[in-house]
Design goal:
The structure holds 3 protein chains of 3 kinds. Chain A is an alpha+beta fold. Chain A folds into 3 domains: 105 residues, no CATH class; 120 residues, no CATH class; 166 residues, no CATH class. Chain A is 26% helix and 29% strand. In chain A, strands 7-20-21-22-23 form a 5-stranded antiparallel sheet. In chain A, strands 1-2-3-4 form a 4-stranded antiparallel sheet. The two termini of chain A are 13 Å apart. By secondary structure, chain B is an alpha/beta fold. Chain B folds into 2 domains: 214 residues, Rossmann fold; 72 residues, 2-Layer Sandwich (Alpha-Beta Plaits). Helix content of chain B is 31%, strand content 28%. In chain B, strand 1 and strand 2 form a beta hairpin. By secondary structure, chain C is mostly helical. In chain C, helix 1 packs parallel to helix 5, helix 3 packs antiparallel against helix 5 and helix 5 packs antiparallel against helix 6. Chain C is elongated. Classes of the chains: A alpha+beta, B alpha/beta, C mainly alpha. Chains in contact: A-C, B-C. At the A-C interface, helix 1 and strand 8 of A face helix 2, helix 6, helix 7 and helix 8 of C.
């Protein structure tokens, strides 16, 4: 029992240390390097890059990047940058009287800029999390024109059910209406994903985008208490995986649809046409995506594991590709040290989800040198022990390195 | 176990404090059925350590210990039921009341004698609902004793029963225990640092010194064979007596000499003469067990 | 013998058990009152929206309570055994040691389960009157790791109390504290620990073994 106990405590401590030691290292070497800010300039038709300083306290380095030649020609001051990005720094330019009346023949009024400008962001954490399959349903055409908080909720498990929140019971009348509509549209239960923006702080309501069990895409709204539903025709080969409802000022889209092959589509309002955004390879479960849509361009920022890719599309010319800018994440001091010390690390949380469970990763062969040194120390310490015990300890130290070395030193087996 | 087999058997027991000081080496003793054996020694000589080893709370460095013929590390629960244990300081479940603790223990021991327990408790003038933690040390000792008597075990192991007790309670404890052990022919293995209490109680004794056993014999034989001689002589210092002389712990105060020995008077006189000492008025002094203990172990 | 041992464990833990039960039910009552006042002020639909969209489970006051109860029960049950090395008395009882330790741990664990289940039932019954079954289930899944953390804390404290040497007690305590940190990594996110439940259950089994190890070490003489 005593031996078993010793092994158990040592292994438990090893598991715990594989989590604690990397965490302590991250406390000692914080890596808070901000991403560069990159935007497409309609003035010089280049990317304008604001590269933050390494310590984050000094002014960013601002330069342009021409995707056609993959070169950078000029460095800019902040004021110069403001002029190159008039849609973004509209207030600064207007206050100095530097705002142009028009650009490329398009009116540059504040109203026109604001109406055509919106930002969309998708974070893996918003997708990789436990969410209820009860969907509050807003009235899209409220009697008093002001959006109100939902009073009913929708479930789409074996069939459709409308629940009245006040009484926590089924609203039979509406359930029948919705069930008929769902049946008429050929909806296959259960729903895989349904997405809406449930808030009254928006100008209008686009309702839900829903993916059914057959990977079909639907648009659902409740208007005057009745269902309004459309089955959206998908481009050939497109298999929708995640949907995002946008309710932007330009009222151009119902939302965005990401597909299994990494493509991203905009779902055009009224026509239900799926407009593919070229060159975008987006995995919402692992990548952060930000879209800044302006009068002249779409700047799509896609953050992967190792690099960020900005894609600029021409908003005035059928979303034609304007160019790409890539930025590889720098290796921080922590990463450099970590790979030499730890053969692997354990974590329970992740930046890309909101679940807690043990995950072992960051395997590093560089740590074998330290492991071998520690194994030699173990072999020396246990030189008078039985061969089996010695070999087991050396092998375990070679595998688990510092994580097992520390407990084997600290935990006494007397 | 047959009747003539030892209840406790200890063979070649060696124990140290951690990796350091030797407590004893090669300790051998048997406790026969029906005998009361006292393990005597100064503080730190290993009395409680021996009890801990015998009760399975400490693994010895080497040696073999058996109780009722079973190795102490593998004692079956049924055998444990035949052993009553008194922990140093009369420790009991202090969160229980007098009544609760009797009810608790009664479930474990087939020969439980409730009357023996309550007979002793009635003398304490405490309420049956009084918690043990609120009792005085003396009262707690009586609860522990009552439980031991009620358990009606074949072997009683008592670790320093006299600790913290005033003379009255010590006497009460000894009297009850003696009567019980002799009437029921129980085997008792006990330690105490107050030797005078044991003289009326124990049959045999083992006297431990630091790292060794000084003697292992019956109390009667010890008091018969171990003698204290006093005499006067005209000397300022006493010579060093070697082990072969058989003289232990000699002391000189003014011209009065006091020495202890297992050897006969003639042998002592011969040894003294060989060292150039001419004793006058040499007498053998009557000794109690405590005197004999101090004579053997020394005052320091 | 079995009932006598249960009686002994009950005598040690009954006060903590009743206090913990009352506090747990009071906290459950507080959760219900908070939800009720929220409904009175904003309407039940706003409560639904908060729970569905913003992960407001309303059970946050419960979070660290099982941990505290587990530790208190462990101390109440095991500390008397180690004070004056009273464990020697227990180990001298004519009862197999492995069954003895199992019974001690089972007694404490069952008491914790009674407290936790009663509290969860009170909250769930109220929730079920105003929320659909799925939301009630999510609230229970949110509380489940906290309750399991309470059992882990109890087992850690038991192993620490039954351990005979201060050195190993400190090691076990550090281990226990770190494990407890894992149980409270993402407060406020409902049902985040769903995939961790099985890991925590395995951990509970491992932690239960620690007490047996502590006893085995005690019997070897590893005591300060």
């Amino acid at each position: 029992m005593k031996r078993f106990y010793y092994i158990l405590v040592t292994l438990l401590a090893t598991a715990v240390l594989s989590w604690v030691l990397p965490w302590l290292l991250s406390l000692c070497f914080p890596q808070n390097i901000a991403d560069p800010f990159v935007s497409w300039s309609p003035v010089n038709d280049r990317f304008i890059v604001s590269m933050p300083s390494e310590n984050g306290h000094e002014d960013p380095e601002i330069f342009d990047y021409d995707p056609a030649t993959a070169t950078s020609s000029e460095h800019y001051t902040r004021d110069q940058r403001d002029s190159l990005l008039p849609e973004m720094y509209v207030n600064q330019l207007a206050s100095k009287g530097l705002m142009p009346d028009s650009l490329k023949g398009i009116e540059m009024s504040m109203q026109n800029i604001r109406r055509n400008r919106w930002v969309f962001a998708s974070f893996p954490r918003d997708i990789n999390r436990s969410v209820p399959t009860i969907y509050p349903l807003m009235e899209s055409m409220p009697a008093r024109f002001e959006l109100e908080d939902p009073k009913v909720a929708l479930t789409m498990h074996d069939g459709v059910e409308i629940i009245d929140m006040e009484t926590n019971s089924t609203d039979d009348v509406r359930t029948r209406r919705f069930a008929k509509m769902f049946a008429d549209k050929g909806f296959r239960f259960p729903a895989k994903e349904a997405m809406a923006n449930i808030t009254t702080r928006k100008a209008y309501d686009n309702g839900y985008l829903i993916i059914d069990a057959g990977n079909n895409l639907y648009h659902l709204k409740m208007q005057v208490g009745r269902p309004s539903m459309a089955r959206i025709e998908l481009p050939a080969g497109a298999k929708p995986v995640h949907v995002f409802v946008t309710e932007n000022a330009d009222r151009m889209l119902y939302g965005l649809v990401s597909c299994e092959d990494g493509s991203l589509y905009g779902l055009e309002r009224d026509t239900y046409r799926m407009i593919k955004l070229p060159r975008v390879d987006f995995d919402p479960e692992h990548q952060r995506l930000t879209i800044i849509k302006s009068l002249f361009s779409w700047t799509i920022k896609n953050c992967g594991d190792k690099e960020i890719v900005w894609t600029a599309l021409d908003a005035q010319n059928g979303n034609k590709l304007l160019g790409e800018y890539r930025y590889t994440y720098p290796t921080g001091a922590r990463d450099k040290i970590e790979k030499w010390i730890f053969p692997f690390t354990t974590s329970f949380t992740s930046d890309t989800d909101l679940y807690v469970y043990p995950r072992v990763g960051n395997f590093s062969w560089h740590a074998i040198f330290l492991n071998a040194l520690l194994a030699a120390i173990v072999a020396f310490r246990l030189r008078k022990h039985k061969t089996g015990c010695l070999v087991a300890n050396v092998v375990l130290t070679l595998l688990f390195g510092i994580f097992i070395f520390v407990p084997s030193l600290v935990i006494r087996h007397q | 176990m047959t009747d003539n087999q030892a209840v406790i058997s200890v063979k070649n027991l060696t124990q140290r404090y951690g990796k350091g000081r030797l407590i004893y080496s090669g300790l051998n003793f048997d406790v026969p059925k029906g005998r009361i054996l006292g393990l005597l020694g100064k503080n730190g000589t290993g009395k409680t350590t021996t009890i801990n080893i015998l009760m399975g709370y400490l693994r010895p460095q080497s040696g073999e210990c058996r109780i009722f013929g079973e190795p102490i590390t593998e004692i079956r629960p049924e055998t444990r039921a035949r052993i009553a244990l008194l922990i140093e300081g009369h420790i009991q479940y202090s969160f229980m009341t007098i009544e609760q603790i009797e009810r608790f223990y009664s479930r474990f021991y087939p020969k439980w004698n409730k009357d023996a327990y309550y007979e002793l408790m009635n003398k304490l003038h405490v309420s049956p609902n009084q918690r043990i933690s609120t009792m005085s040390c003396g009262q707690r000792s009586q609860v522990a004793l009552g439980l031991i008597l009620a358990q009606n075990a074949d072997l009683l192991v008592l670790d320093d029963f006299s600790l913290g007790l005033d003379p009255g309670y010590r006497r009460l404890f000894v009297d009850y225990l003696h009567e019980f052990a002799k009437a029921e022919e129980k085997t008792v293995f006990m330690t105490s640092h107050i030797i005078q209490d044991l003289e009326r109680l124990i049959d045999d004794c083992i006297i431990l010194d630091y790292g060794k056993i000084l003697t292992q014999t019956s109390v009667a034989d010890l008091l018969r064979d171990f003698a204290c001689y006093t005499f006067t002589c005209d000397t300022d210092t006493l010579p060093e007596f070697d082990e072969a002389s058989g003289i232990v712990n000699p002391s000189l105060i003014r011209n009065e000499v006091e020495l202890y020995t297992f050897k006969p008077r003639e042998h002592v006189a011969h040894v003294l003469e060989s060292h150039g000492i001419s004793p006058s008025n040499m007498k053998r002094r009557e000794m109690s067990l405590e005197d004999a203990f101090i004579g053997l172990t020394g005052k320091y | 013998m079995y009932s006598a041992l249960l009686f002994k464990e009950w005598l040690k833990t009954r006060r903590v058990f009743f206090v913990a039960l009352i506090v747990s039910l009071l906290v459950a009552g507080y959760v219900i009152l908070t939800m009720n006042s929220h409904i009175s002020a904003n309407g039940v639909n706003i409560l639904w929206l908060g729970m569905i969209l913003k992960d407001c489970s309303f059970v946050d006051p419960v979070k660290y309570l099982p941990l505290a109860i587990g530790m208190a029960l462990g101390i109440a049950q095991m500390a008397p055994e180690m004070s004056h090395k009273r464990l020697k008395l227990t180990l001298h009882l004519p009862y197999p040691h492995s069954r003895l330790v199992s019974l001690m741990l089972a007694t404490g664990t069952i008491q914790l389960l009674v407290i936790f289940v009663l509290q969860a039932i009170v909250i769930a019954v109220y929730d079920a009157t105003i929320l659909p079954g799925e939301m009630v289930w999510r609230v229970l899944l949110t509380m489940l790791p906290w309750y399991l953390a309470g059992i882990c804390a109890y087992l850690c404290v038991s192993a620490v109390c039954l351990e005979g040497t201060w050195y190993t007690r400190v090691i076990l305590s550090l281990l226990g504290i770190t494990l407890m940190m894992v149980m409270f990594l993402k407060p406020g996110v409902m049902a985040a620990y769903n995939s961790m439940i099985i890991v925590i259950i395995i951990l509970i089994l491992i932690l239960a073994v620690l007490s047996f190890g502590s006893i085995a070490r005690f019997k070897e003489g590893l005591q300060d």
